[in-house]
């Protein structure tokens, strides 16, 4: 009988060790990140549904025709200095800008290395540089 009791205690010892391991796995430090991850996932899903709804609104806006701003389309008479570059006919502001760019490209005034810079000649300087 003593042998049977020893065997029973040996078998019982591993059973006691197993619940301790399980208790370590369910420690609150490891469980907290899992809960945070579950909470974060529904927020992402909510954002995705909001993004899906936004393109539908954009599609509705594309159906309506775009109206140009009347202030940009009003013909303006250029000054004498500007008339030397673009001509003296009244034009809308949008066309005036296009004509200035045509003049810059025609005369090669755009900087070769940094295309955002313009090397103004005497006509352009009279337009853009303030006297004083």
Q: Can you write the helix and strand succession as a string?
A: HHHHHH
Annotation field: number of helices: 6
Name the helicity range.
55-70%
State the shape: flat
Strand content: under 5%
- What is the overall pLDDT average? 74
Low-confidence stretches: none
**Most strands sheet:** none
Radius of gyration: 39 Å
| End-to-end Cα distance | 116 Å
Number of strands: 0
- Main structural class: mainly alpha
Describe the structure.
With 132 residues, the chain is mainly alpha-helical. It has six helices and no strands. Helices cover 70% and strands 0% of the residues. The relative contact order is 0.06. The model has no long low-confidence stretch (mean pLDDT 74).
Summarize this entry quickly.
It is built from 6 helices and no strands. The chain is mostly helical.
Task: Give short descriptive properties of this protein.
132 residues, mainly alpha, single chain
